[in-house]
Amino acid sequence: VHPSKRIEIQQILNESYTIDFEGDGFVLTGETSKWGITDSTVLDLQLELDGKLLEIIKSPVSFKNRKHELAWKYNLTREKHQLKLKLLNPNSKFECRLNDLILFDKL
Q1: End-to-end Cα distance, the chain
Q2: Which of 19, 50, 53, 77 has the fewest CB atoms within 10 Å, i.e. is most exposed?
Q3: pTM for the complete prediction?
Q4: Which 3 state secondary structure label does DSSP give 45?
């Protein structure tokens, strides 16, 4: 599996975000932290693929524990997919930034 395309998103997740793509896998980059924040708050993100729940992502806002990749999934069937991310516990002090969707294809 190798990266084949990068889709720039560059937006704040307010409630939900949906994107259609075609590929064998994906990585969704982004973050819920800001530099220097050590708060113990964790934002919960619901990840759906093709209308099915994949997981509830626990994303810490602390810069020491943050995730640079919010979600990923490989070994998908090569077809059109729909990815949906929903913020389950919005917090006015913190935000979830969506950066890029990196698509993958099999060699």
Answers
A1: 6
A2: 77
A3: 0.90
A4: strand
Measured at the CA of 86, the angle between CA 81 and CA 87, to 5 degrees, comes to 155
Whose tokens are 């704040």? That residue is: 12
At residue 90, what is the residue type? P
Hey, which residues does 55 pair with through a beta bridge?
47
Residue 75: Cβ-neighbour burial (10 angstroms; 0-12, 13-18, 19+):
exposed
> Is 96 in contact with 13 (CB distance < 8 Å)?
yes
pLDDT by position in tens, the chain (length 107): 889 999 999 999 999 999 999 999 999 999 987 777 788 999 999 999 999 999 999 999 988 787 789 999 999 998 999 999 999 999 999 999 999 999 999 87
